[in-house]
Specification:
Elements lengths: L1 H8 L5 E5 L12 E6 L9 H4 L6 H16 L6 E4 L4 H12 L8 E6 L15 H8 L9 E5 L2 H11 L3 E3 L20 E5 L12 H13 L4 E6 L9 H11 L6 E4 L5 H10 L2 E4 L3 H4 L5 H8 L3 E5 L3 H4 L6 E4 L2 H13 L1 H18 L2 H11 L29
Parallel strand pairs: 1-2, 3-4, 4-5, 5-6, 7-8, 7-10, 8-9, 10-11, 11-12
């Protein structure tokens, strides 16, 4: 929605190609919605959907994409954006280019927050590394087909690994700054965990962190935790169940558990009311991979407590938070935050303003549209890695 607002404010028309079951919200306004797609990236993980999926899901996606573009009557000056691409999208791209007069069609922009290890839609018979290695041979690349990643780290990784340009396209702020009232200055400092209860997001560390701060900061009313613990798509694994049980033993004034899914307004209300967001994500999975929650947190002016050497930690640009290494470091960081909350809030506010200036919705749209300008096209080897990796390493990938 924010990307749409950015496009509209720049004078562009916008149409959404959506899932057939998409329900258009009232606040969407005068945006054309065209129901096209019959599957989602998560259907492979849902038992009720998995049985009905065709073996060639990418072929169906390709057909539906072609039909949607044809029905929308978009031309060569228009742009089609996949803002959260997954494996089936990438598998469908060679067929899309081969089966259309791509030079006279719209520019296609494909962006992902995922690395290949975590990307939804992987199948045993079609290794994603092979799929990505083949993308560089598509004639339309950097002419009518453009690849993007949500983080600079992920963009540089794909570019260096697979030999074609992948550019950074940071997420814009999800809501206007006015939507985020400052957290209450009186009362305990609030540390918030948002999203599904998942091991890779550090959920298993929360009981230990809460226990070690309880006597010094819980009983004294200096600190409290608000923890969303809704299940992920596959449900609760035993270790997560045990962690939730341990957290439930603390007084509700110290640890409040959110066990039901949050609506959008409820979600952002919790974010607005907190002081810090816990992003203790696994370094292996989140070193280069994007995080919508992290972007939402920084844009809301909240302190980030993020695992060191992750994308989330890279958003701590003005001292609005701490990059931490483990439980000991996190306990110390929370104690410091509780000691000087005003100082950290001020830094987080500066951090939010910096991100909003650099990565607003209009900037997102301008990056997409500007990249299709022939005068801005460059040979392979983008600025995101130039000067850091020798061109010799790429051999025939170098075309400059």
């Amino acid at each position: 929605k924010r990307i749409t607002d950015g496009a509209l404010s720049l004078g562009h028309e916008v149409e959404w190609l959506t899932h057939v079951e998409f329900s258009s919200p009232a606040q969407l306004g005068p945006i054309a919605v065209r129901p096209v797609f019959t599957a989602t990236m998560y259907d492979r993980y849902r038992a009720d959907k998995r049985a009905s999926l065709p073996p060639d899901l990418d072929a169906r996606l390709l057909r539906e994409l072609k039909e949607g573009i044809a029905a929308a009557r978009v031309g060569e000056r228009d742009h089609v954006v996949f803002h959260t691409a997954y494996a089936d999208v990438y598998r469908a791209l060679p067929g899309y280019v081969a089966g259309t007069d791509w030079s006279r069609g719209p520019c296609l922009h494909v962006c992902t927050p995922y690395d290949l290890e975590t990307m939804p839609g992987k199948t045993p018979g079609s290794p994603l590394a092979d799929v990505f290695s083949g993308l560089r041979t598509i004639e339309a690349v950097d002419r009518k087909l453009f690849f993007w990643a949500e983080t600079p780290q992920l963009a540089a990784h794909f570019t260096a690994r697979y030999g074609f340009n992948v550019r950074a396209l940071p997420l814009p702020p999800p809501r206007p700054e006015s939507d985020y009232a400052a957290a209450a200055e009186a009362g305990p400092v609030t540390a918030l965990y948002l999203g599904a209860a998942r091991e890779e997001k550090g959920f298993l560390h929360l009981p230990d962190i809460a226990a070690r701060l309880y006597e010094s900061h819980g009983r004294t009313g200096k600190l409290r935790f608000v923890i969303q613990c809704t299940p992920q798509i596959v449900g609760y694994v035993p270790s997560i169940k045990a962690a939730i049980e341990a957290l439930s033993r603390f007084p509700a004034a110290y640890v409040r558990l959110i066990e039901a899914p949050l609506g959008e307004d409820e979600y952002h209300a919790e974010l607005a009311a907190c002081d810090a967001v816990l992003l203790l994500y696994n370094q292996k999975n989140y070193r280069i991979r994007g995080s919508g929650i992290a972007v939402e947190a920084v844009c809301a002016g909240k302190c980030l407590l993020a695992r060191r050497d992750t994308f989330c930690a890279s958003l701590i640009t003005h001292g609005g938070g701490r990059a931490v290494d483990g439980v000991d470091d996190t306990v110390h960081a929370l104690a410091e935050l509780a000691k000087r909350p005003g100082e950290y809030r001020e830094r987080a506010s500066t951090q939010a303003a910096h991100y909003r200036r650099a990565s607003g919705a209009q900037a997102y749209v301008r990056r997409i549209i500007g990249q299709a300008d022939e005068s801005r096209r460059v040979p392979f080897f983008p600025s995101s890695i130039a000067g850091h990796v020798s061109p010799v390493l790429f051999g025939s990938a170098w075309t400059g």
